[in-house]
């Protein structure tokens, strides 16, 4: 897979390194000569250019890319790169870094963004995820379809503990994609049972999040006489 990364700072280089290890073809683009550090990521292609300029993106052959990542420290630049990648070059997948959470509302399909990653929001979400049981935590927002990646740790008192996945009436526009149980990562089947303490990852429409949280957190009825 060919991936172009706009922004060759610490974030861009880190992403490039991870993707190269997974066998992908990487192009790093930056307009600052000081950012062009070929020796830091020697396996990548490098281009000294302004990623907001059509001529630069032509030189980068952006139409050949499967993914474009707008990873600069400037939200305005990331939005422009995303819009050009999607509208001018038809890049199938555009991922954009959000530096200022106040700008997050702009990073959507209208600007060509498929996935917006807000580092401050992600960090706070991971903190919440680490300390929250029974509360829905939003980890990532997908622009298409207004869907989010959300997590909830199933509390011991949940009525769904011990219930088969296929027996649960999940809300519409909701999909259980992963169960993390201890050190295991499970792809759920209809026959798998939910257990207290399971970390459940869903892709869910934002409008369904409250309904999903209510379903998972509902307490067992006290049947004691």
From TrEMBL:
Return the Gene3D superfamilies for the record: NAD(P)-binding Rossmann-like Domain, Regulator of K+ conductance, C-terminal domain
The record places domain RCK N-terminal at 1-117
Any matching Pfam family: TrkA_N
Q: Which UniProt keywords apply?
A: Ion transport, NAD, Potassium, Potassium transport, Transport
* Signal peptide (UniProt feature, chain positions): none
Residues in a coiled coil are none
Entry GO terms, CC? plasma membrane
Q: Which PANTHER family match?
A: POTASSIUM CHANNEL PROTEIN 2-RELATED-RELATED, TRK SYSTEM POTASSIUM UPTAKE PROTEIN TRKA
Q: What name is this protein filed under?
A: Trk system potassium uptake protein TrkA
């Amino acid at each position: 897979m060919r991936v172009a990364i706009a922004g060759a700072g610490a974030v861009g280089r880190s992403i490039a390194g991870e993707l190269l290890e997974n066998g992908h073809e990487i192009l790093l683009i930056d307009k600052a000569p000081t950012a062009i550090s070929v020796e830091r990521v020697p396996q990548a292609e490098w281009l000294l250019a302004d990623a907001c300029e059509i001529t630069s993106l032509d030189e980068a052959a952006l139409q050949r890319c499967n993914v474009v990542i707008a990873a600069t420290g400037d939200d305005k630049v990331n939005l422009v790169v995303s819009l050009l990648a999607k509208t001018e070059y038809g890049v199938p997948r555009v991922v954009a870094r959000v530096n200022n959470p106040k700008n997050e509302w702009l990073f959507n399909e209208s600007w060509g963004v498929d996935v917006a990653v807000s580092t401050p929001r992600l960090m706070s979400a991971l903190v919440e995820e680490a300390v929250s049981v029974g509360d829905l935590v939003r980890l990532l927002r997908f622009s298409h379809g207004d869907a989010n990646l959300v997590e909830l740790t199933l509390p011991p008192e949940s009525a769904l503990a011990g219930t088969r996945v296929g027996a649960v009436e999940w809300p519409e526009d909701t999909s259980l994609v992963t169960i993390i149980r201890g050190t295991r990562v499970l792809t759920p089947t209809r026959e798998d049972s939910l257990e207290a303490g399971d970390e459940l990852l869903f892709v869910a429409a934002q409008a369904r999040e409250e309904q999903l949280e209510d379903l998972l957190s509902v307490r067992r009825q006290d049947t004691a006489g």
